[in-house]
Amino acid sequence: MHRYRSHTCGALRPSDVGATVRLSGWCHRVRDHGGVLFIDLRDHYGITQCVIDPDSAAFKAAEAVRSEWVIRIDGRVRQRPAGTENAELPTGAVEVYITDLEVLGAAAELPMPVFGDQDYPEETRLKYRFLDLRREKLHANIMRRGAIIDSLRRRMREGGFFEFQTPILTASSPEGARDFLVPSRLHPGKFYALPQAPQQFKQLTMIAGFDRYFQIAPCFRDEDARADRSPGEFYQLDIEMSFVTQEDVFQAVEPVLRSVFEEFAEGKRVSPSFVRIPYAEAMLKYGVDKPDLRNPLVIADVTEDFARDEVEFKAFKSVIKAGGVVRAIPAPGAAGQPRSFFDKLNDWARSEGAAGLGYIIFDYEQANAVVRDSSEGPISAEDMRAELAQRGAPIVGKGPIAKFIPLEIQKAIAAKAGLKAGDAVFFSAGPEAKAAGLAGKARIRVGDELNLSDKDQFAFCWITDFPMYEWNEDEKRVDFSHNPFSMPNFDHDAFMALDPEDHATILGIKAFQYDIVCNGIELSSGAIRNHRPEVMEKAFGLAGYPKEVLEAKFGGMLNALKLGAPPHGGIAPGVDRIVMLLCNEPNIREVVLFPMNQRAEDLMMGAPSEVTTKQLRELHIRLNLPQKQG
User: Fold this and answer.
1) Residues 587, 472: one domain?
2) At which residues is there a site annotated Important for tRNA non-discrimination (predicted)?
3) Which residues contact 338 (CB under 8 A, 6 or more apart)?
């Protein structure tokens, strides 16, 4: 028999009754039932109930065993007594009577128990991550992550892609986030950078003629943590293709993601097709460039309506005169909500830094009246509205600001927002970016409060036509708004002739850039690349990068483009976020094997850590630490 096991702890079945077996694992739980000990023995594969009584020669050793001790047991498989079977365990019809027991690894008192689903502080969970990973849910998440990555790899290979590995030590480049720098011992004063993404290398792979590349790529960015983003490092499904248009990329990527989500959706529906939404439309209708399409609400712009002379609501008029906008967030069926519903949303808006959310409730005057004989019983508000609609009864607006808005304009607002009697509408007003942002958040909140969002699905969309440039208010100049390596969606000759001071035209340029969004989470950014060196020089020049800076930062890429580059494009869906969605976890740390905390610290390994003076001397580095306060 094998030194440690003849079977795993998830393998035994009724067909094994009578067999002598050997199991090894962790003591998941130890129970004393009147002198008879029950040990639930756990390994990676499952749990087996083991039993021992004073008649066994191993009983004394078993009495010393505690939770999470690692033991080996020998014993006979027997049927569980009738009525004691555990249908929730694959091994639940049998148990093992222990004849011999060996302690392989005793455990000290645990800082957190493994058995059960109790919540523990995240700092404790991260410091003792190896214990946390023994817990069933987290263990299952990590195994699911591996299965999802296997599925992604298989589907990419089936699509004609080949997996490559790109360098980890590379040169620093301005790609939008801070680099992690690695000092060079052999080249004093110089630094490598860990790649924010394999962007340049995957493009160079296309220029080298390999046509279809993919990689489960580690990426490193020195940025703050969020619930859906790990600090420091993350993984993405990095993809690049040659001789393709934007549509070709969509057609290659959609089937991969759709089929992976269908494989692991566990009954949730998956979008049969990915909706295409231009960036400007997304910002108007959803207030954000990563819309959650499970929520059916669509924001409307009602700036023109509130700007009309007949409207007397001065708060919005002053916003519009200052160049701001007014956005309407529909609330279907909200007329039946209590006043506290509207007050609560106003309080929430104030907590977001806004003055509040103005609102109008659209309804019939008699919507809640009883109009039938008492013998027929009271009529519901819904039936009452249907009856009033048949009569052609007028709809009126109610609420704090309704009296300042003439009925005809109220009707126009209702039509734009798709509202009818029994519905309400909230308003967000201010500078366009702030009004859109608040409206987007209010859309989600209203949808959740009214239970309008269909959570039982994965709703995908493509966001397209991103602006190539944006205005950097701090530095008063044009800057890249997305990926600087993207091809502008602009006539070539007109682009090359652009005056760098023509900010209005430059800021209106769109790029062949696109994002994949699922359930309000951005999974990926991608683009058709700028493969023409003269266009790249011009694009960077318009963003304030002189040719010498471009050559210094991206000389390798620029030289490669001058030596025969094919049209190419790609995308890079985030693996961690895909797994987070498919595991139904709100926090990305629940699907990462050994994550850092929000301050980018590895509490288990003690990173980042101080290094010795000798190490610093070898790297020709002297520390200049900030002064401690107080």
Assistant:
1) no
2) 33, 83
3) none
Residues 311 and 430 in one domain: yes
Q: At what angle do helices 246-264 and 575-582 cross, to 10 degrees?
A: 40
Give tens-digit pLDDT for 412-433: 999 999 999 899 999 999 999 9
Question: 287 labelled as ligand-binding?
Answer: no
Question: Are 421 and 394 part of one and the same domain?
Answer: yes
What 3 state SS string does 124-152 have? HHHHCHHHHCCCHHHHHHHHHHHHHHHHH
Q: Determine if residue 577 is labeled as part of a ligand binding site.
A: yes
The annotation status of 211 as a binding-site residue, yes or no, is no
Closest CA to 562 of 572, 543, 547: 547
* Position 120 in a domain: no
CB 526 within 8 A of CB 572: yes
- Tell me, what CATH number does 338's domain have? 3.30.1360.30
Q: How far apart are CA 422 and CA 342, in angstroms?
A: 14
Decide if 337 contacts 310 (C-beta within 8 A). no
CA-to-CA distance for 127 and 142, rounded, in angstroms? 18
175 annotated to a ligand binding site: yes
- Give the pLDDT confidence of 279-300 residue by residue, as tens digits: 999 999 999 999 999 999 999 9
β pairing state of 269-270 and 457-458: parallel
Predicted confidence (pLDDT) per residue in 68-93, tens digit: 999 999 999 999 999 999 999 999 99
Residue 254 is assigned to a ligand binding site: no
575 among the known binding-site residues? Answer: yes
- Look up the domain containing 259 and give its range: 138-266+573-615
b vs e for 442-457, b when ≥16 Cβ sit within 10 Å of the residue's Cβ?
bbbbbbeebebbeeeb
Same domain? 71 vs 33? yes
485 and 591 inside one domain = no
Residues 6+ apart with CB under 8 A from 123: 597, 603
Q: Looking at residue 602, which CATH number applies to its domain?
A: 3.30.930.10
Measured between alpha carbons, how far is 572 from 256 in angstroms, rounded to an integer? 12
522 marked as binding residue: yes
Task: Count up the domains in the chain and report the number.
Answer: 4
Are residues 249 and 160 part of one domain? yes
Give residue for tokens 């792979």. 205
Torsional sign, CA 390, 393, 394, 400: negative
Of 128, 229, 111, which is closest to residue 603 (Cα–Cα)? 128
pLDDT at residue 375 tops 60:
no
